[in-house]
UniProtKB/TrEMBL annotation:
Pfam families: Abhydrolase_6 (PF12697)
Entry annotated with the keyword Acetylation: no
Gene Ontology molecular functions: hydrolase activity
Organism: Acerihabitans sp. KWT182
Classification via Gene3D superfamilies: alpha/beta hydrolase
Family annotation (InterPro entries): AB_hydrolase_1 (IPR000073), AB_hydrolase_fold (IPR029058)
Record SUPFAM superfamilies: alpha/beta-Hydrolases
Keywords: Hydrolase
Protein name listed in UniProt: Alpha/beta hydrolase
Entry keyword Hydrolase: yes
Domain AB hydrolase-1: 1-82
Length: 107
């Protein structure tokens, strides 16, 4: 399973969720930090969904190496939708996209 974070955050957006999935025993879990986020440099004009999508497609092919579930939140959800439309099906088998505000409750 691969998680894609939202705007202005990093892979750590999923740091509480990842251990729970690992306890299930049936998931290999990845959480990425996209180019232009975290400690990476910022080069104007390099962060289009086409470019980030190509980066994610390469990650799925070269690192994950098999069909996987891809989940994204906020702008990461938009990127998961891009993958659903553009990534080869042998790399991104299931796509889950959500906006965190939809999952939040007021208690």
């Amino acid at each position: 399973m691969v998680f894609i974070h939202g705007q202005s955050v990093t892979w750590e957006e999923y740091s509480l969720l990842m251990p729970l999935l690992l306890l299930c025993g049936s998931f290999q879990v990845f959480a990425v930090t996209l180019s232009g986020h975290g400690n990476s440099s910022w080069t104007p004009g390099l962060y289009t969904f086409n470019r980030l999508g190509a980066d994610m497609t390469a990650f799925l092919r070269q690192v994950v190496g098999r069909p996987t579930i891809v989940a994204g939140n906020s702008s990461g959800a938009v990127l998961t939708a891009w993958l659903a439309a553009n990534a080869p099906k042998q790399e991104a088998r299931e796509i889950i996209a959500w906006k965190q505000e939809v999952l939040a409750t007021d208690g």
